[in-house]
Amino acid sequence: MKPQRTIQLSPEEIAFVRDLVLFEDAHILALNKPAGLSSQGGRGQVHTLDELLYAFAKPGKARPRLIHRLDRDTSGVILTAKTQPAASALGKAMMGRKFAKTYLALVAPGAPNPKEGKIELPLRREEAGREAYMRVCEADHPDAEAALSRYRTLSANETAALVELRPETGRMHQLRVHMASLARPIAGDVRYGGALMLGGRPVPRLMLHAAALTFPHPAGGRMTLRAPPPADFQGLAEALALAPAAGWGEQGAQAGV
Q1: Is position 71 annotated as part of the catalytic site?
Q2: Which residue, 21, 62, 78, 224, is the most exposed by fewest CB within 10 angstroms?
């Protein structure tokens, strides 16, 4: 990677981003991104995660490079490459669909019907002023992008459901639009019709969490990184009497899986 311009970070920002580290070795750096932090391209004065990565840059060298992004209000595992060879290898693996992503989401009202299945609906991008949306469209639409998601209900009642989501393509807002297409939008998703109150409680943000990421490690083998949902997600799920997913409190890395 070529050296890039540096951004001045405060001691508080450096401490903040270093506290997000899930795993680090000579090739990769993985973080547990909190909701409310933009991955890239923020419009305000607050630094994005991409800019906060300067906290890990060595003198005269580039910062780690984001391999993928998460929506601003989505929490969870996000991966970066520390070297150009690692970035190249991971980028090729991503393009070759060799990454497996697992998300947890709270949807409403109640469980999807059926409770488990796949959603294979093409999507197209639509601009509305400065905002971008994704819409379900016909496969023969000139702007159609193929999109496939798998879902599984982990726990449910009449109010809401805890679901596991596995996108097999990486379209913008894919999981959000696909769950809305089942009339079970993700709670807190203002853009796509998600509930803002559940069980008499306000939904604090988009209830979508990137819980696990499995990928080919640049040095060989496969690795799985896991991050437990943050307190706002867990708290709302528990308040709704939705049983936690098995192992959802785990954090860390596992090789050879």
Answers
A1: yes
A2: 21
Q: Which residue has the higher pLDDT, 43 or 190?
A: 190
Residue 114 preceded by cis peptide, ω within 30: yes
Tens-place pLDDT, residues 77-126: 999 999 999 999 999 999 999 999 999 999 999 999 999 999 999 999 99
H-type helices in the chain, by residue range?
Answer: 11-18, 49-52, 84-95, 174-181, 231-239
Check: CB of residue 244 under 8 Å from CB of residue 231.
no
Task: Please report, in angstroms and rounded to a whole number, the separation of the first and last CA atoms in the chain.
Answer: 29
Give the tokens for residue 113. 């019907």
Domains of the chain: 11-255 (3.30.2350.10)
193 has a pLDDT exceeding 80: yes
The pLDDT assigned to 19 comes to 97
Given 50, 71, 73, 189, the catalytic residue: 71
Token readout for 238 is 């528990």
Amino acid found at 82: K
Backbone dihedral region for residue 86 (phi beyond 0: left; psi -120 to 50: alpha; all else: beta)? alpha
The residue written with tokens 């450096």 in the block is 14
Measured CA to CA in angstroms, residue 124 lies from 134, 147, 183 at distances of 5, 10, 19
